[in-house]
Amino acid sequence: METASHKCYKDMIYLLENLASFNWATKMLDSYGKPESGILLGNVKWIGEYDECINAYAPQKEDTSIGGFHGKYCTLQIPFQFRNMSMPMNVAVCLPDSCNPSLHPFEIGNLNITNSSFIEEVDSLLNNITLTCRRTSREFTTGAVVVICLLSFFAVLAFIGSSITALEYCMSISPSEESICRRNAFENASNNEDADNLSQKEADDVLFIHKTDQNELPDWLKKCKPFFNCFCVFTNGEKILNTSNQAGQLPCLHGIRFLSLSWVILCHSYQVIFNSTRNIAEILDMVNHWSFEVILNGFYSVDSFFVLSGFLVAYLYFQQCSKNGGKIPWLYFYIHRYIRLTPVYMIMVAFFTTLNTYTNNGPLWPDYDVDANYVPRRVELALY
């Protein structure tokens, strides 16, 4: 029976044998990460061509088990010393999908070398190299399926609520039965010799006979409308985009909220860039510039949100005191605030915990499984 390591080794030999034919093997080799300019500036991430690698396919040899594989994008992490800092040099390699990180395709035992000292040096180098491979397809976990069902349920509610609002709007702008009857009554009267004698009262009598309620929602739908209206895209979108000041609002806080939110977005944008940067040395020089203090002190943007939250809680507290004569229903006060903030917050936590890794793929995209200990740590965020 052929082992996995033997299959990987034979596919690697098959790959090397077909390099001269300028076909799929050449594409796999071309997708490898290669040394680039700017190494002295910290450019040690040679990510190669991800799509070219995974789209390459090796046809299977006739009457053999060799071939029949796709390319698998992997990364070699080689220890590298740069400016008194230890960082891995990431080099992309394209291997047959029959190989995996636990089966190193370049085993020293497969090389016919008699120099023992050279073997020891190469073996030491290979032991310090880490090989990680990315998955091109993944099955949905139980948590991901649950979150998809939950989001689908809310999407259905949003569709129903938006449909009811759209139906009501269309019925309001369509000509009513009353206006049609009024028009027909006067048109008929104009063709009659006694048109001048047709009084407004007689026309209204005609309207009373023909008047219907066809332009109104059914009673059962009217009863359901307040609930589904909570999920309506049009209603909620109008509230979100409404810039008018309403009673009880504090317009002076909008500017502070906008500046704080923009500050948070700016800092997180730099955080994402740092994770995929290629010129570490230039970033170290940029950090020492005075203008970068805005990013280095970005934690104050979160503090400003804390100040706003504390101020608004105190503001609501004094409002409740004035309404209830100094008595505060503390249980209702805390439950109401928790219910207002928690649902959307927990949906975002659930999405990034279970579904974020499925939304895209690539050499720098997160590729991890949610372990059994990760979810409880995320659930603890609900105790904020």
Architecture overview:
The chain is an alpha+beta fold and 384 residues long. The protein contains 15 helices and five strands. Strands 1, 2, 3, 4 and 5 form a five-stranded mixed beta sheet that branches. The two termini are 55 Å apart.
Short description:
The chain has 15 helices and 5 strands.
Question: Which features would summarize this protein structure in a list?
Answer:
384 residues, 5-stranded mixed β-sheet, 15 helices, 55% helix, acyltransferase activity, transferring groups other than amino-acyl groups, O2_lipid_transport_reg
Query: Roughly how many Å apart are the termini?
Result: 55 Å
DSSP summary: helix tally: 15
Overall strand count: 5
Roughly how many Å is the radius of gyration? 34 Å
Cα shape: extended
**Strand fraction:** 5-15%
Give the helix/strand class: alpha+beta
Protein name: Nose resistant to fluoxetine protein 6
GO molecular function: acyltransferase activity, transferring groups other than amino-acyl groups
Pfam family, one: Acyl_transf_3
InterPro entries: Acyl_transf_3_dom (IPR002656), Nose-resist-to-fluoxetine_N (IPR006621), O2_lipid_transport_reg (IPR052728)
